Amino acid sequence: MPADPKGPSRLRQVTGTVRFRVTALAVVAVAVVLLATGMGLVTAQRRLLTDNVEELIRQRADDLAALVSSGQLPATLTHTEGTLEQVVTPDGKVLAASPNLGATPPLGPPPPGDGTETVGTVEHLPSDAARFLLLTRRVQGRQGPVVLHVASALDDVEESANVLTATLTIAIPAVTVILAVLIWRLVGRTLRPVEAIRAEVAHMSGTDLGRRVPQPDGDDEIARLARTMNAMLDRVEDANNRHQRFVADASHELRTPLARIRSELEVDLAHPDTADRADTQRGMLEEAIGLQRLVEDLLHLARSDAGAHPARREAVDLDDIVFRDVSRLRADGRVTVDVAAVSGAQVLGDPDQLARVVRNLTDNAARHARTTVTITLTEHEETAVLSVADDGPGIPADQRQQVFERFVRLDDARTAATGGAGLGLAITRDIVQRHHGTIVVDPSHHPGSRLVVTLPIAP
């Protein structure tokens, strides 16, 4: 008859679980300990009772030795129940014996050689008992040396040991089975939250990132595992949301200049007689430059998100970078640039990326300034502090963190053509953090806004 194909599979499913393995290992370990303990108990009990019997016959031998030494040995010896007593000469003549021995020959040979006493287990003595503990001692009497034989039955010892063995034979398997059931239920109950977590994760999909695993109460390992997994899912959901927003915003920012380029070309094609080719080319060049900067910014952020943004580590004179960028701003002529408070400061980092930080900050300040951009650079407590301030409208208090997010423009009316793509400060913060620095908006600066960058100075 063919075997049920579901049987082995089901068996493997059970035996392959952590629950089964933990239960099996615990039961085997406990069973081995109980078995070893039981064997030790039986051995210890037998040894203890045998020692008691030996002490009893040794005391009786001492009494007989005293009678022999005093010459008061009777022909018939008094004895306790279960003992055999005998006094014989070295050549085997019985001088005295307990009534339960009668004319029985010597119970054993005298101690060998010059020995005075031996103790051992013997069988087949004249009694109903099967085994005896026999003590043989050589003593000196008034008529010469004699040999004492004192034996006591070991029936009580064997019976007690057998009762304990029988009890343990029943108790150990029963305790093992009960323990197996308790461990099986306890481990199953303990692992139930893990199964709930597994089932929840199994139903999650790449488009359903709002689900979370059930989190049990307490602060044990499973509760911490659930909290860690939920925190990981929060990060995954946040990263996915940021990725979607990034893609949507990037698509929008790329679509706008392309639409303007297309519009200018379509107008020129529709009205070739009135088209100003030079003006169209200048407009397209400006849009192409803007597109190039936007693509570079997007590539920078993409590489940063992927963790593939290694930076050079070399000593950089930050004041030189500032002065080069100030020359660029002054050549543009839109604002006045005050660099009276710029002093020397050397930091460790990538000069190209640090130059981008300075340019993004000054471009942002020049874009919002009314008349003046003020730049300061100092060294303070092992750090270089760079600040770029403008006298423009300033940044509202509730948006001082938001300005460092991607594609953020505080003025909704500002377009990419006049206000950039909203990536400059986000990239600036990313570069500063990669250089182990910080960037904040100074809340005490009025009017306008001041952004403060702190970088560790070069050792």
Keywords:
459 residues, 5-stranded mixed sheet, 5-stranded antiparallel sheet, alpha+beta, 9 helices
Any overview of this molecule?
The protein is of the alpha+beta class. The protein has nine helices and twelve strands. Strand 1 (83-88) and strand 2 (94-97) form a beta hairpin. Helix 6 packs parallel to helix 7 (351-368). The protein starts with 5 loop residues before the first helix and ends with a strand. Mean pLDDT is 82; it is low at 412-419.
Task: Give the fraction of residues assigned to helices.
Answer: 40-55%
Helix/strand order: HHEEEEEHHHEHEEHEEHHEE
Estimated radius of gyration: 50 Å
Q: Which structural category fits the helices and strands?
A: alpha+beta
Overall mean pLDDT: 82
End-to-end gap:
83 Å
In this structure, how is the largest beta sheet organized? 5 strands, antiparallel
Q: Give the neighbour order of strands across the main sheet.
A: 2-1-5-4-3
Q: Write down the oligomeric state.
A: single chain
Low-confidence stretches: 412-419
By DSSP (H or I, 4+ residues per run), the number of helices equals 9
- Would you report the number of β strands? 12
Shape: rod-shaped
